[in-house]
Structure formats: C-alpha cells, structure tokens
C-alpha cells in the first residue's frame, strides 16, 4: 500500500474501517533504538495520541474519531477527514486568512480552556472541513492537565511556525489572538507566558 504521507515518526495510509473511509497511522520501528525500548515508545505514543484525540473531542474540539488502536503494531485507525489542509489553503486563498486564523485561535482557546496542550500546532496539522469545522490532527506530543507553561509553549511554537510558513500573512496572526482570547478565560496569562518563553529563547 502506498502511504499518503511519510513523516519522521509515522506513515499515513488511506484505508477503510467497516465501510467508512479511514486513515491508518503506523509508527514504524527505528533501527537506531533498542528494540524493546522502541516498541515501548511507539506503543506509548500511539496510546497517548488516541487518548488525546478523544479528550479533545470531549472538550468540543474537532479531531478525527478513533476507530481502532493496536498497541502491538503501534497502529491507530481513525476517521478520514475530508477538507483542505490549512497550510495549502492559506497559500492558495490568502483572502481567507483572517477568518481561518480566527477559527484556529477559537478552537485552540477551547482546547486550552480544558487544559489540553496540542504539542505540535502547525498549519500542517489542521484540516478545514467543507462544513467550516476545523479539525486538529497529530496531537501525540500534547498533554492533558497541562500547566501554564505547556499552554504557553503551544502559543509560542504556533507563532513561530505560522510566521515561518506564512510570512506574508503575518497580520492575520492578530485574528488568531482575537479568537484565542475570546474563547479562553485565562488567555491573557497564557499569552504573557508565551512572550516570556520567547524572550527566554532569545537570551539563552
Ligand atoms: N485523519 C486524517 N484525515 C485526513 N488526513 C489525515 C488524517 N491524519 C493525517 N492526515 C494527513 O497526513 C499528514 C500526516 O499526518 P500526521 O498525523 O500529522 O503525522 P506526522 O506525525 O507524520 O506529521 C497530515 O498532515 C494530513 O495531511
Ligand atoms: Mg503532522
């Protein structure tokens, strides 16, 4: 089977699950890691991704439904999300950037209000669905019961990733912030922490 995507950690395949279009995310063995530790690590990340996908959904944030988890094979089967990859959408239809960025901020605000950090928030890990919902993918580096620091790191990493992938859309970052602050009661505090993290990075 031809993968749709091959990342540093996992390969993505299209499949079906009981007649529904599905995505299989398989974490492959790494030869440079000790086999027992490698197996443990892949299985832990698979389990964590499945758990966080479910927790985010419970918090009202759209993520793919988890259909099946196979820890032995380090494989996750999930709902196939139809729509536009946000990274490509922003390149092709920059006139939509303000609305899309507001939406990213609003959904991240909802996620953070439930103390869930995403962990790898880039526009490659989001799909805008035809009905206007935004779906977050690839949440295995995130955490639940997240402290202020982890939420601040999310904002700081997104800021950096957004400016580097979409430098000409920099003004739309303001729409992201507006969406975030309107959906996260402690938003100001998190933004202050993100700023502090950015300054720390600058001087160390
Ligand atoms: N549930 C899904 N529905 C549709 N496309 C998906 C889904 N999961 C992943 N993809 C596609 O595969 C790509 C890589 O998946 P991702 O989970 O981000 O893995 P990686 O860790 O390799 O970045 C995504 O950027 C997206 O384009
Ligand atoms: Mg990804």
| Structural class by sheet pairing and helices | alpha+beta
Q: Would you give the CATH topology of the largest domain?
A: Transferase(Phosphotransferase), domain 1
Uncertain runs:
none
CATH class group of the largest domain: Mainly Alpha
For the record, the count of structural domains works out to 2
Fraction of residues in helix: 40-55%
Helix-strand topology string: EEEHEEEHHEEHHH
> For the largest beta sheet, what order do the strands appear in spatially?
1-2-3-5-4
What do these coordinates show?
It is a single chain. With 204 residues, the protein is α+β, with helices and mostly antiparallel strands. The protein has two domains: 5-79, 2-Layer Sandwich (Phosphorylase Kinase, domain 1), CATH 3.30.200; 84-203, Orthogonal Bundle (Transferase(Phosphotransferase), domain 1), CATH 1.10.510. It is built from six helices and eight strands, in the order βββαβββααββααα. The chain has helices at residues 35-58, 86-92, 97-113, 148-165, 173-183, 187-203, and strands at residues 5-6, 10-17, 20-27, 66-70, 75-79, 84-85, 126-128, 134-136. The strands form two sheets. It has a five-stranded antiparallel β-sheet, covered by helices on one side. A three-stranded antiparallel β-sheet has the order 6-7-8. Helix 4 (148-165) packs across helix 6 (187-203). The longest helix is centred in the first third of the chain and has 24 residues, at 35-58. The model has no long low-confidence stretch (mean pLDDT 96). The structure holds adenosine-5'-diphosphate and magnesium ion. Adenosine-5'-diphosphate (ADP) binds at residues 4-5, 7, 9-10, 12, 23, 25, 64, 78-81, 85, 124-125, 137-138.
